[in-house]
Amino acid sequence: MKRKQTREIAIGSVKIGGDNPIAIQSMCNTDTRDAKATIEQIKRLEEEGCEIVRIAVPDMEACNSIKEIKKGIKIPLVADIHFDYRLALKAMENGIDKIRINPGNIGNEERIKAVIDMAKERNIPIRIGVNSGSLEKDLVEKYGEVTPKGLVESALRHVKIVEKYDYNNIVVSIKASNVPFSMQTYSILSNEIDYPLHLGITEAGTVWSGAIKSAVGIGSILSMGIGDTIRVSLTGDPVEEVKTAKEILKSLGLRRFGIEFVSCPTCGRTEVDLISIANKVEQECKKINKNLKVAVMGCAVNGPGEAREADIGIAGGKGYGLIFKKGEILKKVPEEALIPELLKLINEL
Ligand code: SF4
Predict the structure, then answer these.
(1) pLDDT band at 22 (very low <50, low <70, confident <90, very high)
(2) pLDDT in tens, 234-261
(3) 226 CA from centroid of ligand 1 (Å)
(4) How many domains does the chain have?
């Protein structure tokens, strides 16, 4: 899949846009004023593979936590600020790596200039984030309702304000909760600008349904070659957002994160407890950082052939199982020895 070329920008130590890997973001749901709890959550996110993390900065007290949070984490930190330019200035002073603020909402020119000047001085990217729920009234009137074109026009207005101050360190996102609407919006936006684009489907829902909606939405936009960073928004533990984001990128072949795991859906031919075997193998594979494809298949008749593209795998039988490599059977082992034997061989590869 051909990726649309965007400008490369750096968010702290992470580069996005250009040919850089599509980065995984998440957002804390802790009270930012509680630096300890926020650091703890970010550490869990880092462990799962989160590469950029955003925090809400609603007041000065939250701003004051930034220094401490930065000391306790490794990944770049983004401040989510609405309207108040003083919070943007303070967040940057306190070492934030990126700010999400819409310049058109800051107020008078003097305030806008103060924020952009400081961002420029410290090379801090500004993310412009337009949301379908808060489109300017005049654009709703111009287009008759909230439309993809209206949202893109809104984003471009903010972009132009930043460009007016001769600053190009910009990331843009336009969030909506409707998938076809989002696809259309990003497709228009991507033709208009070459700044890196951040993708997400907003208010996607709870962990299970939200993950599916995000996979369809973000996945569809990524398949158009659009998107430089992604965030899956879920009502739940943000660690689930990172897990889902990894799966989306893996499924499209855009990133690799250790072992790629495949398993069959089971059917009337399955004679082992394949569901529990598959779950255990998948869990164990997450701990191994190897560029391999591992398959867990239900039967010896079809399994090895069906998973021919796997580097190694197992196929269940009655009381025993087969270990196969690239579709060829290696050995027959008792059912209880299947998992340890498979893991041993994976570690030897
Ligand atoms: Fe059924 Fe075997 Fe295919 Fe699994 S691999 S779905 S058990 S035929």
Answers:
(1) very high
(2) 999 999 999 999 999 999 999 988 899 9
(3) 36
(4) 2
Look at ligand 1, atom 2, and give the residue with the nearest C-alpha.
Answer: 299
Q: What is the CATH number of the domain that holds 336?
A: 3.30.413.10
**Nearest alpha carbon, ligand 1 atom 5:** 303
Query: Measured in angstroms, how far is the CA atom of residue 327 from the centroid of ligand 1?
Result: 14
* Per-residue buried b or exposed e for 160-186, using 16+ beta carbons within 10 Å of the residue's own CB: ebbeeeebebbbbbbbbbbbebbbbbb
Q: Are 308 and 327 in contact (CB under 8 A)?
A: yes
| Residues 284, 209 within the same domain | no
Residue 30 pLDDT: 97
**Helix (H) or strand (E) run with residue 262 in it:** strand 260-263
Does 217 share its domain with 289? no
CATH number of the domain that residue 157 is part of: 3.20.20.20
Gap from CA of 298 to ligand 1 centroid (Å): 5
Is 13 inside any structural domain? yes
Kindly give the number of the ligand 1 atom that is closest to the alpha carbon of 267.
Answer: 1
Please answer whether residues 21 and 50 qualify as being in contact, where contact means their C-beta atoms are separated by less than 8 angstroms: no
Q: Best substitution site from 271, 296, 299, 309 to test ligand 1's pocket, by max atoms within 8 Å of Cβ? A: 299
1 within a domain of the structure (yes/no): no
Task: Provide the token pair at 60.
Answer: 């000065």
Find the 293 Cα to ligand 1 centroid distance in Å.
18
Question: Over the stretch 197-222, which tens digit does the pLDDT of each residue have?
Answer: 999 998 878 999 999 999 999 999 99
Does residue 1 have a pLDDT over 80?
no
